[in-house]
């Protein structure tokens, strides 16, 4: 028994050393590490205990040295991954990132040089080889494992770890919820915050949640006001454009650029309804700002670093701006000049009520910036295609990508947002010429991924962008600062529309003199829980929203005529693009894009009787949709 307690002491020392390595990788300097160790010694000890927990299975194996090495290896890999991610973005490594590995792999060459990729892969392979070497060479314990004694020591250690963790949370030493996840990792350490992101997902059931409380909330904050209908009102097209990393550089106090890169946006902010927008992410996390704006829901109630697009919205339809506008007779379109599978938008937009989705795989005449991102100007044509696709009014939600990092320099970033400013100007001018009632909402999704600190910003925040509401309807020029989840409620309120559960809820509280009501956030959390995880009491027990049959693209891609000869397949049709791929019995074959009406493909797999189809397939090889087949009679 004595040797087991000695082993526990050795494991604790190992966990201490591993924790120091992890935090050094995150903080990247000895002074910063020392500030954390000596400034928050109890927090550091709690994290050391958490690091120790995965080492406890060592008690039950004979190859103990190998088990220690492997456990330490995975902890250090996680810590180094966090440190590397913090170089390129402000958001630290969370469990949700594990769901995004396939997207990260596609972006490796954007953020890293080939030399860095090869070096990282070599280090990883060497580390694995070291683990294999330890497995083969490290001695195994000659004594059989005493399961009773090992279980006793491990249970005592686990109980101490569990008790210490709960005491730390109950006493407020560490927080359970993180308003600012980047600051939380700084304050509470990587092991605790990462473990929190693993175990804490979704929205916890509020203590006061029951039918009567929801009914009272409905009576107080969700009473129908003036109902809006197409028959009795002249409704505008509503277009929202989420601008990737779009930010006013003059708000950064260390900005040394002489020229104003966003003169047109600045003009709009001066003369139209506008204000600051508090967003849930910085440097990355586009989909979370998107989620708040589309649904009106506050991400603070979800697990730390959680992306609802990757969790609850995988299988749950959610009330949204798209559903609300469709209820008023609108057609709902989503547009994004990047891969359709990114953040699973090709699935999630159906859960959010959109009827069409046009990703880059369905776009034409694409131009790219020097770092490979699609320029935003292509969105102008796509927005007008959506407007022209229906007789009535349209709700369009467009997501830009040109301002995406990595940035070679701040000057380069300014060049990109200057180009985005020109895109905005072109879009506004063409909408003005259309002479159709229109509301255009423009806003930045988050700040760019530079190593900035709040003290360098004029507004002392890294979580604040700007929005503006251009319109040709004479809407009042109100200046109002908002949370991202309040944006659509504010826009609808300007249009005198009071439909939708979350918009109506926010409009009720936004009427009051101050939104710092102590019951505002509590009521919001209860409502979000009821809609997504609870009994849907606000809908009388059953959600009225169902996943839509999402149509990809606006222009139909049509396969008309197919010939196969001399080892070559030739397909003729309409609206092909560089993402159109010929498939033989469902298997993609090498395809040459000849033009919008013709594709050529390798005919090696073709045989008499095999089916030839055309699919739109992006870089990640996920088929998004098959061309309609219209063969001549």
Give an overview in words.
By secondary structure, this protein is α/β, with parallel strands linked by helices. The chain has three domains: 2-199, no CATH class; 224-551, Alkaline Phosphatase, subunit A; 556-629, Immunoglobulins (Immunoglobulin-like, Sandwich). The chain contains 20 helices and 18 strands. The strands form three sheets. A nine-stranded mixed beta sheet has the order 8-2-7-6-1-5-3-4-9, with helices on both faces. It has a five-stranded mixed beta sheet with strand order 14-15-11-10-18, with no helix packed on it. A hairpin with a 5-residue loop joins strand 16 and strand 17 (623-626). The longest helix has 26 residues, at 2-27. The N and C termini lie far apart (86 Å).
CA-based gyration radius: 27 Å
In percent terms, what proportion of residues is strand?
Answer: 5-15%
CATH fold-level name of the largest domain: Alkaline Phosphatase, subunit A
**Total strand segments:** 18
List the quaternary state of the chains: single chain
How many H/I helical runs? 20
Helix fraction by DSSP (H/I, runs of at least 4): 40-55%
| pLDDT averaged over residues | 88
Q: Which strand order do you get reading across the main beta sheet? A: 8-2-7-6-1-5-3-4-9
Classified in CATH, the superfamily of the largest domain is Alkaline Phosphatase, subunit A
Q: How many angstroms does the end-to-end distance come to?
A: 86 Å
The biggest sheet amounts to:
9 strands, mixed
Q: List low-pLDDT spans.
A: none
Anisotropy-based shape: globular
């Amino acid at each position: 028994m004595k040797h087991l307690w000695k082993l526990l002491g050795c494991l604790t020392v190992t966990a201490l050393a591993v924790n120091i390595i992890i935090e050094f990788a995150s903080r990247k300097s000895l002074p910063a590490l020392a500030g954390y160790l000596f400034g928050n010694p109890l927090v550091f000890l709690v994290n050391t205990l958490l690091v120790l927990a995965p080492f406890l299975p060592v008690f039950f194996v004979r190859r103990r040295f190998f088990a220690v090495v492997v456990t330490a290896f995975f902890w250090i890999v996680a810590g180094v991954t966090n440190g590397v991610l913090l170089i390129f973005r402000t958001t630290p490594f969370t469990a949700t990132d594990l769901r995004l590995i396939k997207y990260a792999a596609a972006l490796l060459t954007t953020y890293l040089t080939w030399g860095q990729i090869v070096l990282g892969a070599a280090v990883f392979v060497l580390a694995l080889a070291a683990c294999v070497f330890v497995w083969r060479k490290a001695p195994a314990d000659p004594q059989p494992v005493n399961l009773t004694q090992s279980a006793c020591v491990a249970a005592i250690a686990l109980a101490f770890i569990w008790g210490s963790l709960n005491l730390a949370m109950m006493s407020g030493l560490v927080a359970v919820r993180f308003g600012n996840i980047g600051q939380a990792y700084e304050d509470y350490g990587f092991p605790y915050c990462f473990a929190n992101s693993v175990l804490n997902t979704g929205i916890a059931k509020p203590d006061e949640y029951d039918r009567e409380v929801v009914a009272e909330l409905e009576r107080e904050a969700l009473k129908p006001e003036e109902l809006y209908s197409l028959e009795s009102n002249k409704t505008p097209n509503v277009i929202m454009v989420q601008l990737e990393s779009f930010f006013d550089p003059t708000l950064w106090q260390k900005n040394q650029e002489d020229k104003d890169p966003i003169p047109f946006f600045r003009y709009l902010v001066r003369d139209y309804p506008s204000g600051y927008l508090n967003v849930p992410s910085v440097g990355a996390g586009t989909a979370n700002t998107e989620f708040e704006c589309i649904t009106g829901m506050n991400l603070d109630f979800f697990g730390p670093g959680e992306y609802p697009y990757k969790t609850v919205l995988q299988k749950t339809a959610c009330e949204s701006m798209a559903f609300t506008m469709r209820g008023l007779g609108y057609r709902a379109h989503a547009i994004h000049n990047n891969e359709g599978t990114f953040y699973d938008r090709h699935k999630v937009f159906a859960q959010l009520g959109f009827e069409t989705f046009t990703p880059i795989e369905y776009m034409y005449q694409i131009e790219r910036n020097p770092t490979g991102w699609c320029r935003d100007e292509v969105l102008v044509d796509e927005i007008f295609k959506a407007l022209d696709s229906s007789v009535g009014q349209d709700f369009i939600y467009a997501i830009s990508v040109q301002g995406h990092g990595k940035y070679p320099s701040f000057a380069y970033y300014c060049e990109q947002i200057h180009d985005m400013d020109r895109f905005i100007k072109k879009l506004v001018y063409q909408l003005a010429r259309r002479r159709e009632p229109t509301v255009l909402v423009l806003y930045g999704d988050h700040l760019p991924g530079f190593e900035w600190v709040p003290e360098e910003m004029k507004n002392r925040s890294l979580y604040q962008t700007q929005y503006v509401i251009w319109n040709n309807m004479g809407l009042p020029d109100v200046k109002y600062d908002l949370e991202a989840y309040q944006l659509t409620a504010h826009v609808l309120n300007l249009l005198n529309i009071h439909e939708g559960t979350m918009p109506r809820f926010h409009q009720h509280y936004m009427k009051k003199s101050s939104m710092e009501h102590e019951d505002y956030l509590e009521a919001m959390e209860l409502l979000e829980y009821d809609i997504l995880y609870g009994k849907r009491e606000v809908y009388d027990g059953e959600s009225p929203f169902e996943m839509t049959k999402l149509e990809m693209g606006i222009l139909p891609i049509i396969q008309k005529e197919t010939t196969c000869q001399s080892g070559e397949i030739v397909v003729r049709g309409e609206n092909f693009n560089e993402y159109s791929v010929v498939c033989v019995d469902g298997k993609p074959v090498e395809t040459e894009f000849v033009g919008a009406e013709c594709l050529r493909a390798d005919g090696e797999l073709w045989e008499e009787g095999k089916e030839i189809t055309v699919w739109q397939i992006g870089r990640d090889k996920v088929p998004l949709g098959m061309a309609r087949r219209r063969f001549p009679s």
